[in-house]
Amino acid sequence: MDWFTADGYWLGRLLFQKALAVIYLTAFLTAALQFRALIGERGMLPAPELLRRTDWRTAPGLFRLHYSDRFFAVVAWSGCVLAVALLAGADRFVPLWGAMVLWALPWALYLSIVQVGSTWYGFGWESLLLETGFLAVFLGNAHTAPPVLVLWLLRWVLFRVEFGAGLIKIRGDACWRKLTCLYFHHETQPMPGPLSWFFHHLPRPLHRAEVAANHVTQLLVPVLLFTPQPVAGVAAGLMVLTQLWLVLSGNFAWLNWLTIALALSAVDWTPVAEPPAQAGAPLWYEVVVIVVTALVVVLSYRPARNLLSRRQIMNRSFDPLHLVNTYGAFGSISRVRMEVVVEGTDEPVIHPGTVWREYGFRGKPGDPHRLPRQFAPYHLRLDWMMWFAALSPAYARPWFGPFVERLLENDRDTLRLLRHNPFPGEPPAHVRARVYRYRYTTWRELRATGCWWHRTYVREFLRPTPPGPATGRPRGSAATS
To answer: Taking the CA atoms of the chain, what radius of gyration do you get in angstroms?
Structure first.
């Protein structure tokens, strides 16, 4: 090892790159299959309208040059092809500069998608993928040992992900300090998985132990990433175990998997496999890496200051390219679960005996008999936003009306986002939405009824609405606040 490279991290780099390629593939596939209904020209929040309200300086990307649904599809599917090529090891068969180009292309394509993604792409893991993908451009390929500076920058990302999440919890909801948040979290998290019901019913002392272990992993262990090996590798391993626990207990898109990929890059795998012969880094490459490192250090000032602030914010980008960001999750925990249930009827006149049929979503709870499914790392964007809508109608104000309009039209692209359309022939005459309180059933209730959920009607979210210009205006005090 010379001052610039670290031979022992070749396997960690390889594992990181393969995992990142899979995550890129998932992200581009999600975009390709969902964009028309969400941000397409006839989408709920059309990208062309967003482009008219923003400019190059605030939201740079390819779609500044041209936007059409066909061009977006080309971008998304091209990203899938590039991700598959990188997963297959295409960067091994080109010179170092060619490998950098191969890794830069999916980053640039996904940045362009995020810039026009509006509310649907407002999640922290979008910025995390972009920041991580940018650093991957400078990580080199099999011809050159991994550069030390980039390895440290990847640890800096991992540190902010974990430490930021830990701080926001300690500073936020009191239940994190009392070790009681997991009494509620598995039941009220945005999108439960197939094991979440079982996690919820674990003994409460175990829940308290989980929270305590989480604090250790997120507030103490991240500091060890910057210590010598093997301590840093052990710290990264503990993070991997914690993230796998989260994978089992819920659906958080690619957040957990990308965090695992970052942790793998922090492990010195020399005891497992001897590094192959690798050439020294060329001078131009060293210069580029040093310049990029300096840029990241400068851009890290505001995210670092945010970590230290009593008014810490979660999941914020401080530059238009999402190069250095701040992260965090679940600063507050819901005690009860509310769900918006969307129903339709084909009866032209509403009366007390009207028969309403429920639309089925792929991931979010609906039918009480249906066990939640595992979708992560795939991202069900509409289902996630429906969870926010249940918290407050204000979250749904920009897009819920267009969503209902498309249900009243039996819009093909919108219906593809759903699991079940109760009106496969003619579109419904009216659509309504109601808020229910959901809770997990007990073991006894599950055996007696076969239901994983028990739900109770709370209030109206959207009155019965026919096709028309006022379609889909959600109701409730939060909607007018």
So the answer is: 24
Residue 5's φ and ψ, nearest 5 degrees, are -120, 165
Q: What amino acid is encoded at 152 in this protein?
A: W
Using one digit for the tens of pLDDT, what is the confidence trace for 308-357? 998 999 999 999 999 999 999 899 999 999 999 999 999 999 999 999 99
Q: What is the pLDDT of residues 1-52, one digit of tens each?
A: 478 999 889 999 999 999 999 999 999 999 999 999 999 999 999 999 999 9
**Cβ neighbours, 10 Å, residue 14:** 19
Q: How confident is the model over 383-415, as pLDDT tens digits?
A: 999 999 999 999 999 999 999 999 999 999 999
Question: How does strand 325-326 pair with strand 316-317?
Answer: antiparallel
Q: Where are the beta strands (DSSP E) in 351-470?
A: 357-358, 360-361, 418-420, 430-440, 453-465
- Can the peptide bond before residue 469 be classed as cis, meaning omega within 30 degrees of 0? no
DSSP label of 216: I
- Joined together, the tokens standing for residue 421 give 């359309």
DSSP per-residue string spanning 56-103 = TTTS-SGGGT---HHHHHHHHHHHHHHHHHHHTTGGGGS-HHHHHHHH
Q: Which two tokens stand for residue 426?
A: 């003619």
Q: H/E element holding 404?
A: helix 393-408
How much is the pLDDT for 2? 78
Give the pLDDT band (50/70/90) at residue 475.
Answer: low
Element (H, E) at 249: helix 231-249
Q: What is the pTM of this model?
A: 0.95
3-state secondary structure of 144: strand
Helix, coil or strand: residue 479 = helix
- What gap in Å lies between CA 266 and CA 458, rounded to an integer? 48
Nearest partner of 361 among 386, 394, 392, 397, judged by Cα: 386
C-alpha–C-alpha distance, residues 481 and 475, integer Å? 11
In the chain, DSSP finds a helix count (H) and a strand count (E) of: 18, 8
- The tokens describing 260, both together, are 């695992």
Q: How far is CA 196 from CA 98, 201, 251, 339, 388, in A?
A: 44, 9, 9, 17, 19
Q: Which residues partner with 338 through β-bridges?
A: 437
